[in-house]
């Protein structure tokens, strides 16, 4: 107990000394930092905060030190996260390598694969994109048809197309589901890491209503990937993909901690003079904040339970939190009064962030597996209903 107290005191001190005050304020979209081979920072404070977190391994607190982590145990990592959250510290980097691929490499990767990729991921040197969905495979992901064929022991030749690939045009690498045996469904899938910097890969942007477009369609025309970058073994990619989706859904359950813009509807309402009677909206906001509190508590429960095995409650979190997040942005728009009618690009930076985030929030209940599919998972795995 006293050790825990000591560690909390140490971490509190460390944060106070290393986190610039400006990094303890809500993050506007324009100040997000994305891990990348050509990483850039909006200001010196965000660079200082990024360096402090990566040099100590605190961006990947539970990863072993040899792979760029801080080697903290579960309890210490929880304390670190709690203290960062308590002060409203910004996530120093958005990095799918940390939230999604890294845990999968730790579980399924060979020693060589871990040594090659994990330290670079922890240091924020790679921008990853996710090549799962295809024009003919979304919810039914096992229907992917992008092929990886081979004439030798070293290289795969990749052909096909991926769609809705977020930020593919900026990415350094893609983790990708490919068919290595066309005669089989799940058992013909491999999980391969592909270097995006090659002429045989084309990425085209897809426009969105929010005015922000992370989406691309990616085309592979005899692109190459090393067989040594196949994770979990050839034709054994399905369990790897399922594990990655679980980490993606966990990440999506806590978008603000991951660096997404968050604005509180009650703050907006306080500053909006247009309503003569704010009571109705205040009631809706209070109910929403209470549900958010319950989701936070469930998240804590899942973290505690997952120390001892799989927590079934985890399966509910993506559905509950993304539906609630969508409602939060609806309440934010309502709380802006007339300002909520502005189109993206026409108001102050804050109003712009609210309007863009409102439109973008519609995607949260689709990305990473739609709400309908999450309900199927809950009904089958928790309620025991037939498929
Ligand atoms: C913001 C965002 C970012 C994304 N980023 C990426 C990315 O980086 N990489 C990537 O690979 N993909 C990405 N996606 C794609 C995403 O994973 C798919 O959109 C999602 O899995 C749904 O697939 P789909 O769009 O093909 O829809 P479909 O699978 O065609 O579904 C259409 C509709 O049918 C419903 N439906 C389908 N099957 C069932 C069922 N069995 N029971 C009940 N209802 C069903 C769905 O709920 C949905 O409403 C992203 C999507 C969004 C919105």
Name a few traits of the molecule.
single chain; 387 residues; alpha+beta; Butyryl-Coa Dehydrogenase, subunit A, domain 1; Butyryl-CoA Dehydrogenase, subunit A, domain 2; 3 domains; 11 helices; 8 strands
Commentary on this structure:
- The chain is an alpha+beta fold.
- It has 3 domains: 2-94, Butyryl-Coa Dehydrogenase, subunit A, domain 1 (Orthogonal Bundle), CATH 1.10.540; 128-240, Butyryl-CoA Dehydrogenase, subunit A, domain 2, CATH 2.40.110; 263-381, Butyryl-CoA Dehydrogenase, subunit A, domain 3.
- It is built from 11 helices and 8 strands.
- The strands form 2 sheets. It has a 4-stranded mixed sheet.
- The longest helix has 27 residues, at 279-305.
- It is globular and about 70 Å long.
- The termini are far apart.
- Bound molecules: flavin-adenine dinucleotide.
- The site of flavin-adenine dinucleotide has 18 residues, from strand 1 and helix 11.
Count of β-strands: 8
Give the overall silhouette. Answer: globular
- Percent helix: 40-55%
CATH architecture verdict of the largest domain: Up-down Bundle
Strand/helix succession: HHHHHEEEEEEEEHHHHHH
Physical arrangement of strands within the biggest beta sheet: 1-4-5-8
Number of helices: 11
Give the CA-CA distance, first to last residue. 46 Å
Q: At the fourth CATH level, what is the homologous superfamily of the largest domain?
A: Butyryl-CoA Dehydrogenase, subunit A, domain 3
CATH third-tier fold name of the largest domain: Butyryl-CoA Dehydrogenase, subunit A, domain 3
Spell out which ligands are present: flavin-adenine dinucleotide
Instruction: Give the number of domains.
Output: 3
Q: What's the level 1 CATH class of the largest domain? A: Mainly Alpha
Structural class determined from secondary elements: alpha+beta
* Uncertain runs: none
Strand count, sense and closure of the main sheet? 4 strands, mixed
